[in-house]
Predict the 3D structure of the following.
Amino acid sequence: MERHARAVSAAASSTESVSAQKIAGYGVATVAAVLVLYPVFYLLQAALDVGDPQTRPPTAYGLDNFEALLNYPQIMLNTLSVSFAATLMALVIGFIMAWILTRTNVPGRLVFEQLMAVPYYLTPLLGALAWSMLGSPESGFLNQFWRALGGSGHVIDINTPYGIAWVMALFEGSVAFVMIGAVMKSMDPALEEASQVIGASRLRTMLRVTLPLVIPGVLGAAIFVFAEMLGSFAVALVLGTPNRYYVITTAIYQLIQQYPPRIQVAAAMGTSLFAVMFVMLFIYRRIVTAGSYVTITGKAFRPRVADVGRLRHLLFCVCVLYLVVSVVLPIATLLYASVQKIAVAFPAADNFTLDNFRAAMSMNAAGSALTNSLILAFATATIGIALMGLLAWLIYRSRLPGAGLIEYVVMFPQAVPRLVFAFGMMWAWLAFPIPIYGTLWLLLIAYLTVFLPLGVRTIAGVMLQVDKSLDECAQMCGASWMFRMRTISIPLLVPGLVAAWLLLFIASVRELGASILLMGPHSKVITPSIVESWFGTASELTATLALIQTFVVAAAVAVLVVVTRRVSTHVVN
Amino acid sequence: MAPKPHIEVENLEVSFGAVPAVRGVSFTVTHGEQLTLLGPSGCGKTTTLRAIAGLEKPVAGEIRIDGAPIYSAARNINVPAEKRGLSMVFQSYAIWPHMSVFDNVAYGLRVRREEAAAIRNKVIQALALVQMQAFADRRASQLSGGQQQRVALARAFVFQPSVLLFDEPLSNLDAKLRADMRIELRDLQHRLGITSIYVTHDLEEALAMSDHIVVMRDGLVEQTGTPDDIYRLPRSAFVADFIGSANLVHGRNRRDLATHGLLALETPGGQVIYGNAYGRSAGDELTVSVRTVHLQISPQRPAGERNVWPARVEKTVFQGDFTQVHILWGDQRLIARCAALDPLPAGQEVFISVDPKRVVLLGA
């Protein structure tokens, strides 16, 4: 009888707790939708605005802005050729490194695999600055060496399309490596062994079995990387603009920054770019999720490692070479430049100085930019994991209706280059009644928006690792939603959430594309300040600033590594 | 007097999107009874269990505990899982890796805000019942599969739930341990006198552990009964074959040959086989089931007139405890499982026979 009464009274309160979940869920979903869709709306509005550029809202709509894009054929051509060359190089780097590190017995395989993440953390901007110091035709260190050795002119010129593509490829190569490496790892070695047992030679097996199995994965990586290249900004900005060589992102930036700005054309350019990227990422997702090829079974195999004999010493050198050109050389260059009065290739005692560090730390602008960046990164990461954690739960665990749609909205910023997104945001929040334009608040909103895909994906990855029955079991023990959150879900998720926090922190500190448009004179942040310093002051000081930023990121990465180590030893069911 | 039902499931339907998983399932469980939902994977047995638990929301039907609905489509009642007062042992054990064994077991008691001293006593008692008291301070990740299983069990019954639900709890254990745990679980259930619903696809487990079995297929109930009923009198070809192994014989109903309360079936090959209808109605076309263990093989003609036929051995397969003999019987192939048999060469002429009691008419 007593139980009877309890069940009946429970029935009444059940509607309450379900609706509390619903309100929380849809509330967060609405916030995310506004963050993402409000700027996109303004971007489209500006792109279709053919009225007087000085008045808002627009007085007339049309497609004239898109027609005007035909006046910039050179920019389109530049974008395509740089992206194509860079994608090709990145894929070659990624494929070779993936093959060496997953399929051969090269010495130090596991260490190299860890180190492959380092170029990704260094950022293309740092690479571009360093390679500019190394390879600009006059003052580049490598060219100075070349002339000292008796050569004339220059041996490399980084300020060319190939130079831009080279630097882009160096850093995107580690992304391609991760993607292709995953495909190679998920391939069942039995498929190859079956071919060899039947009597096929190693070469034949490679051509007829391995390659066809890996190709869809490589194709997916190619599309993804190409889309990233189309939207990349920092390298072309540092290496291309001095020679007035523009790609689409730098052209958009130029159109907005010049006087008078050509907002509408920039908006049309941004819209077109994001339309193309959207289609490419859609195709990428189709390739990945189609899963029609057997390699992706969701199961990680222990790949068969081929004994490559003495070739392994050569392959070892290849791995070292990649890390030297992408990590060691750039960092060494910046370090070297930062302790010189005038950056030259050959050291001299009277050229040594620590003034740059002193200047960087005492420089008001740079100092406050670094402080601002740290505050922002802290706030973004903290608010971010709450917001993105709820969103991840909403999308992957809540089973509330409409979760699929929310996933699309949340992943949307992935398809929009940050510069373009920030442009929509600038336009959107200028029209907003509360004056947050030019403050850190706007940057905070921007970061929370553009990092939605990163944060939600990271947290969802951890969330999906934790078996659903762990929560269900607590439910069967009679625990309410709040109690389960406190005792089961959050404790299990904490290591993952800490990792997500650090990733968001790192991403915020290095953010360039959105910040460069949205920061105001009193809300400077570090990465755009480095760019400003590069174009405005001396390269030695810039190198110092870049090093300081790298140091902050490196510290965060170090914590991240320690935390993720702990996660992996902490066995989650 | 009929025992009072503890759990009643009525016309339960569960769908995943447009895909129906359970399509109208009804059964009742009396107090202290162990009921097993048995069926192949994808038959909807786990979904039914999860719907009772409150982890899946049905689309139609009603579930009552002690007469009070905990789910009712008609009356729009859906008590959340945590308020149904049930407990469950999960297939994956779901041992929380961030807690010690003690904390895992104490969880349900802490949810119920019991005194620390009472919690301590009950947890130690529960762990003693599953012979895990020595492991109270261990971390979950330091336990073997069988040990995790015991902890999951202790955690499930420690707070004295009215009903225990088991979702294939033994399927992740190796065969030997599974057989031991089967007996232990049965003993424990008797000792606690707790009503339980048990889901499995393992026939032996179901036969050994249950008071009643509900055989499910494609989201529907195929047959309900005691283990003995279900084994002896399968109602359909599916049950006959799923519960053990059986030979199915089709043919015409020869009412003119029926004697002694037996029915007679004539195969297309002209063989006549006598069987028992067990009160089931027989039409013109019949299907009977003969368990492979009930088919006798002898080199000489055995005594008796009915259900004895000459046949030929096609091949034999040695399987340890028994030998499986494939027999050519007219134009039909039959399988017999015989214990301890002298070798039968392929092609040998033998006699097969079966007691008419063991020839069971299947329902239409």
Observations:
- The interface with chain B takes residues 1, 3-4, 6-8, 10-11, 13-14, 17-18, 467, 469-470, 472-480, 483, 487-488, 491-492, 570-573 of chain A (CB under 8 Å).
- Chain A has 25 helices and no strands.
- The longest helix of chain A spans residues 2-48.
- Residues 1-16, 292-300, 569-573 of chain A have pLDDT under 50 and may be disordered.
